[in-house]
Design goal:
Blueprint lengths: L1 H5 L1 H9 L1 H4 L2 H10 L4 H19 L15 H8 L3 E7 L5 E6 L8 H15 L3 H6 L1 E7 L10 H10 L7 E8 L2 H12 L4 H5 L1 E5 L2 H10 L18 H19 L14 E3 L3 H4 L2 H18 L3 H17 L4 E5 L2 E4 L2 H21 L6 H9 L25
Parallel strand pairs: 2-3, 3-4, 4-5, 6-7
Antiparallel strand pairs: 1-2, 7-8
Helix pairs in contact: 2-5, 4-5, 6-7, 7-9, 15-16, 15-17, 15-18, 16-17
Length: about 400
């Protein structure tokens, strides 16, 4: 039967390395992707090994794919930046994959498919991405972009997705030309399941119109790597590739190394500048510090330390981490560094409240408060980073 045929690659992998195939964390990926439906998870596991063998061969069936497994053509396709994992998550905490169709450079379709496989599986090393899934944005709105799409590649990418152990929550196709919109819509109507059709959206129009449509679906656009003139920004993507290489080296030397690809919404990021200030975890921390500032100011030194420890524990108990970039790689800092971060936030808010007694740090907490309806006291899933409000306090 077809199911037995699909299991051939799985059975081969199991005969080569039972420990790799039966690894609990690896199998958990497939269970989470199928909402713990064992039968569906098993079929996806079979599909995964079948597709992995097709793309990389039987020799790499029982190993985690790394950049060292790429051919020169694969690396060229990856570094071209046509597919990028964005540093943001959407309003629901899902990872965002951006694909610039008109910038695709490849010798064969398999270069693109191997690149996609690698980026997807790299992103899945984050537990939040495993649980919440991801969305894909396929962008083709450049002024000089192609007026047609590679239908064969389009279908091969769709064929790859069921082999990836994650929850695909949405695919957004953004195009400029109406006849491309009709072409994509016709393919959408031919997708196998109603779920596939419902999570596939086609948007047409100018940059502003397509980006507005994406924002209505909770997809932030502030880190989109493409300009209104169709220029592709590869800087962040090359940072991602370099960080991935460093993390692979560290993982090979450090058993149990925990790789952080995209910070979770609950994480607090250490750094300066608006992107850090507008991260949801930082906005929640700012709101907490603002509300507790009067108590902190009236406390003795030892009591201030106890209060800071409670804030750190509350963030960690909520699944948050305190992260800092080291050579482009996100790393979790020690509790002492986290405590220093909390103390610094209190001092900053105190200074800002003196400079701006009426609005002071409230301008930061207001952004967190405005998205507070779904997440309770510390904030929500909604990221209002694009609403134009000025952040006055450095968090």
């Amino acid at each position: 039967t077809k199911q037995t045929s699909n299991a051939d690659a799985y059975l081969l992998a199991e005969s080569i390395s039972p420990s790799f195939v039966q690894n609990e964390k690896f199998r958990l990926l497939f269970l989470r992707s199928m909402r713990f439906d064992v039968h569906k998870a098993t079929l996806r596991l079979y599909s995964h090994f079948e597709k992995k063998m097709e793309l990389f061969g039987p020799g790499k069936l029982c190993k985690k794919i790394s950049l060292d497994d790429f051919s020169e053509d694969d690396l060229h396709t990856l570094k071209n930046g046509q597919t990028q994992l964005l540093p943001d998550r959407d309003r629901s905490g899902r990872a965002i994959f951006f694909q610039a169709h008109s910038h695709m450079i490849f010798r064969e379709h398999e270069n693109v498919l191997r690149t996609l496989y690698y980026i997807y599986m790299t992103a899945l090393e984050d537990e939040e991405t495993q649980k919440k899934g991801f969305v894909v944005v396929v962008y083709n709105v450049e002024p000089q972009g192609p007026q047609s799409m590679d239908a064969a590649l389009f279908l091969k990418i769709y064929d790859l997705l069921p082999a990836i152990p994650t929850k695909l929550k949405g695919i957004h196709y953004c195009v400029k030309h109406s006849h491309v919109h009709k072409f994509l819509s016709s393919i959408r109507s031919q997708l196998k399941t109603q779920d596939d059709r419902q999570r596939t959206r086609v948007h047409s129009g100018s940059h502003q119109e397509c980006q507005y449509c994406l924002m209505t679906f909770g997809v932030p656009i502030r880190h989109f790597p493409i300009s209104n003139y169709g220029e592709l920004n590869r800087e962040r993507h090359m940072d991602f590739v370099e960080a991935a290489r460093k993390q692979e080296e560290r993982a090979s030397m450090t058993p149990g190394y925990r790789r952080i690809v995209v910070p979770a919404q609950a994480d607090v990021l250490l750094g300066r500048g608006r992107p850090f200030q507008l991260h949801l975890g930082n906005m929640r921390l700012s709101q907490t510090v603002t509300s507790l500032l009067p108590v902190y100011e009236q406390s003795a030194k030892q009591e201030k330390t106890i209060l800071a420890k409670k804030i750190v524990e509350e963030i960690q108990n909520g699944g948050g981490r305190f992260l800092k970039q080291n050579g482009g790689v996100w790393e979790e800092v020690t509790n002492q560094v986290a405590l220093n971060k909390i103390s610094h936030s209190f001092r900053t808010h105190r200074s800002m409240s003196k400079m701006h007694p009426k609005d002071g740090a409230e301008s930061v907490s207001s952004e967190a408060s405005s998205s507070n309806s779904k997440h309770g006291r510390l904030g929500s899933k909604k990221d209002n980073g694009n609403n134009g409000k000025r952040v006055r306090a450095r968090v």
